[in-house]
Amino acid sequence: MNFTNELTSFRTIELRRGFTLIELMLYVSLSSILLLSVSAFISASLELRVKNLAVSEVEQEGTRAMNMIAQTMRNAEGINSPLAGAIASTASIDVVSAGSDPTVFDLSGGAIRMAEGAGSAIALTSNRVSVSGLAFSNLTKTGTDGNMRIEFTVSYINASGRNEFDYSKTFRDSASIRF
Length: 179
What we know:
Helices cover 38% and strands 31% of the residues. With 179 residues, it is α+β, with helices and mostly antiparallel strands. It has one domain. It has a five-stranded antiparallel beta sheet, covered by helices on one side. Keywords: Membrane, Transmembrane, Transmembrane helix. The chain crosses the membrane at residues 21-42. InterPro entries: N_methyl_site (IPR012902).
């Protein structure tokens, strides 16, 4: 009798080695949740990477253009336009080098441009961004060398229409003539 009971126990254990329908559904559900979580994380990471690309491009273009304008202003002899107390979308700077005099900054076709002397204008920003609202405010006080506030907004060109490419930043700086 003892041998028969052991054989019956062994068969019961052997049959229980498989998965029940409930266990199988539980494993599939957990696996699905895990895969969905991983894919959501990867998707979010890719969107963040794309957003960082747009932010980086706007930051680099805006900073480079602002540095070029401010450096030219700091090394200038004077401000031709706008006149003291005025605001304009174009600035003419009286620079030390005769071949580069005057240096003019303006906005054309969504790009900040710089023209030195009789030379043609060159773009300071790339075609991956668009610049708007370029304003030069001449803050020069009587008896001072010259002080200019520069302001513009740089936007990433979102040709694909994807939300993660939407990014704009307004840049503001002031520069005073050092001479």
